What we know:
The structure holds two protein chains of two kinds.
Chain A: H1 2-49, H2 56-81, H3 89-103, H4 108-132, H5 137-155, H6 168-175, E1 177-178, E2 181-182, H7 183-201, H8 203-213, H9 215-220, H10 225-251, H11 262-272, H12 284-304, H13 311-336
Antiparallel strand pairs in A: 1-2
Helix pairs in contact in A: 1-12, 1-13, 2-7, 2-8, 2-10, 2-11, 2-12, 3-4, 3-5, 3-10, 4-5, 4-10, 6-10, 7-8, 8-10, 11-12, 11-13, 12-13
Chain B: E1 4-13, E2 16-26, E3 31-35, H1 42-49, E4 57-62, E5 65-66, H2 72-78, E6 80-83, H3 95-100, H4 114-126, H5 143-156, E7 161-165, H6 173-188, E8 192-196, H7 200-206, E9 209-214, E10 217-223, H8 229-237, H9 239-244, E11 266-273, E12 277-284, E13 289-293, H10 300-307, E14 315-320, E15 323-324, H11 330-335, E16 338-341, H12 345-349, H13 356-361, E17 369-370, E18 373-374, H14 376-389, H15 406-419, E19 424-428, H16 436-451, E20 455-459, H17 463-469, E21 472-477, E22 480-486, H18 492-500
Parallel strand pairs in B: 3-8, 3-9, 6-7, 7-8, 13-20, 13-21, 16-19, 19-20
Antiparallel strand pairs in B: 1-2, 1-4, 4-5, 9-10, 11-12, 11-14, 14-15, 17-18, 21-22
Helix pairs in contact in B: 8-18, 14-15, 15-16
GO molecular function, one term (chain B): ATP binding
Protein name (chain B): Sugar ABC transporter ATP-binding protein
InterPro entries (chain B): AAA+_ATPase, ABC_carbohydrate_import_ATPase, ABC_transporter-like_ATP-bd, ABC_transporter-like_CS, P-loop_NTPase
Amino acid sequence: MSTEVARETPAAAVEDARRAERTDRIVGTIQRQGALAVLIVVVVISLIAFPNFRSFDNTATILVAAAPPMLIALGMTFVIITGGIDLSVGSLYVLGGVLAAWASQYGFAAAFAAPLVVCGLIGVVNGALIAYTRMAPFIVTLAALLGARGLMRAISDEGSETYLVKNDAFKQLGNGSFLGIGYQVWLAAVLVVLGMVLLSRTRFGHSVYAVGGSEDAAALMGVPVRRIKVGVYVMSGLLAGLAGAINAAKLGSGVTVLGTGMELDAIAAVVIGGTLLTGGAGTIAGTVAGVLLLGVIQNLINQVGNVNSNWQQVISGAFLALVVVAQTYLVKLRRVN
Amino acid sequence: MPLLEVSDVSKTFPGVRALDQVSFTLNPGEVHALVGENGAGKSTLIKVITGVYQPDDGELRYQGEPARFGTPMDAQHAGISTIYQEVNLIPLMSVSHNLFLGREPRNRLGLLDEGRMHREARAILAGYGVTADIRLPLGTLALGAQQMVALARAVMIDAKVVIMDEPTSSLEPREVETLFGVIRELHARGIGIVYVSHRLDELYRICDAVTILRDGRVVHTGRLADLERIRLVALMLGREMSEIRREGATAFSSEKAVDTGAAPILRASGLTSRRKLHDITFDVRPGEVVGLGGLLGAGRSETIKAIGGAYPLDDGDVQVDGVDLKRPTTVQAVRNGIAVQPEDRKAEGIVAGLSVRENIALAVLPKVSRLGLVSDARIDAIVERYMTRLRIKASSPDQLVGDLSGGNQQKVLLARLLATGPKVLLLDEPTRGIDVGAKAEVQSLIDELAAEGIGVVLVSSDAEELIEGADRVVVLRDGVVVGTLTGASVTTEDLMATIAAAAPPEEAE
């Protein structure tokens, strides 16, 4: 009997392997391109159904509105690929905006430096606590969420003092445009491209995937796991601070009441974009599609007019649940083979 | 000059002397088998060599110099690579990225050169018989191919010593041949290989030297070709020790009456599971203790788990008391009177944070409940009965099981199984890690239970326990039944002879 098994297995194994390869290719494509496909479908339907959607201005509006969430989701993509989560970004976004508005009185450079330094440092603390004390990212960044919100309220006198942007060049960044498209969109686009190169074409990027794929194996293979973890939380903090700064430039002041729940929107966009919440797989292209998809849904609801804009949250939520269920199923398909 | 020299290394963990003055020498180009049963100290020795553990005592010399590796990375940098039983790569990353992680070729801009990486990966892996698309995630490859990628990676980093921990346990016969080809090549290049395996045929095919560990000590070291198979098995299982002991060292009674004409209470037929089990068939009559013999990795635990529904079967059939369960789920198995005592008591058996009472009652909750509400009085009665019968020494039924001794934990586990009123009791190493007194009590309990008409399947690495406890012994090797010992042939000599018998020639083609 044993000999019979020995004889028939090679052929069966080859066939198994071939089937596994095919399934994997299909599943992988759905995972990577699913959000993009849905985005295209939604956009095509909107182009036909909503005349206002078709205008160039509307497109520019969608893109400008999507720039800050894009930056936050970009950082979040790196964090989630390592298997972590960063809940502090919503607070850092608000804090960054207030700091930028306040610091704008000292010039253009200061308006960027203040939020980047503070939010970057909070990222360092997040990363160090997560990497070196092995505390759960959820708890560490929840603490940072509360801490950063407190800090924002303290410097804005319980939110009652609104700092106006005092630097014209900085204000111009938030409201000017190049080729009809806001500066912040170009900034986000450049950072997205840099992020793509970093993630897919550098040793750091591959290490990010390795840490999320299997931390123990990565460590055994010589990946500096702790440094990578600190790195992704610093990136996430910096990008959240920058997002806050460009939002302040657009609004002309450091608004203290925005940003609640931004972290959840970012996580939703990343997951919709095909990044696994468990880490180890995901792409920035997917995240871009995820952010735009959520942005387009919001825009459409505004187009319809008399629909309460909170429906956007309901739709986003339902969509997210759908994606996570689909992801779980797709991953299982991959593993079984 | 030896490549690696371990001299008089000792390592103690709380309560266990894992290594006791162990010495081990590996020469360049040598394939050195490291063998021993579970708990013999193989893993500890490997971990000391690779820097996972620091020895309490003794010395490590590497390439003639005293060496001390603080972490596995230190050992790797020095040229000692380890291939673990479970592949330690990143399943979600592509094959070539896994191969090159941390050593990726870069272009002039400092960016990774994907094209070159894929080309080189393809070329390197072709030498290991891996032909799958190297851009696919590693996890989509067969386990054997993943093992080869791990090996290729280990050798790529200028390894001088490669440690292989059961490298063939998940390989197909064809892949084993490829692996052996690679090993021969490494051997020719002067790389020293430590080869851990329980498959005797493989050891004799590929290894030059052997070191046998038992209970943390080296019991033999030398050329493998000079050591007879039967000697090797005897040394591993500790036959010498049992010769010194007087007969009847276990608490099993020697006289037993099994109604050989009775219908079997358990019938396992054709149990087959990918690579691990091949057509395992045996039955157990009421009141009979059937031993499963064989070395580690022969498929004994898998067989037991499969019968209890906890191990996936591709084919086969389990019948209990005339009821055909086909391939039962755990729930079906329990409902039909199959009770399994798993090998790893702490991980799969007791719930350390619950009390003795709660642990015993766990499996009988459905029986003592009415409309979903649990009857305390009935639980108390059951707990009381089994604590007395099994002589469980606890301060009260409410003491936490985690605070009891190993022997008493085992008894709590048995009490839980017995409370369900099983027809068949499957015991995997029931006396491992418990003291002598408790061991004797558990052994006589097994006899008692059999006398009451329960069918018992017993797995034990203690050859003596197996021989004296079992009425019949089914011997497994590499997931295949290679013989059954009955009546007068239930002896340690026959057991070893069966285990050591060379595989039929067509298997070692």
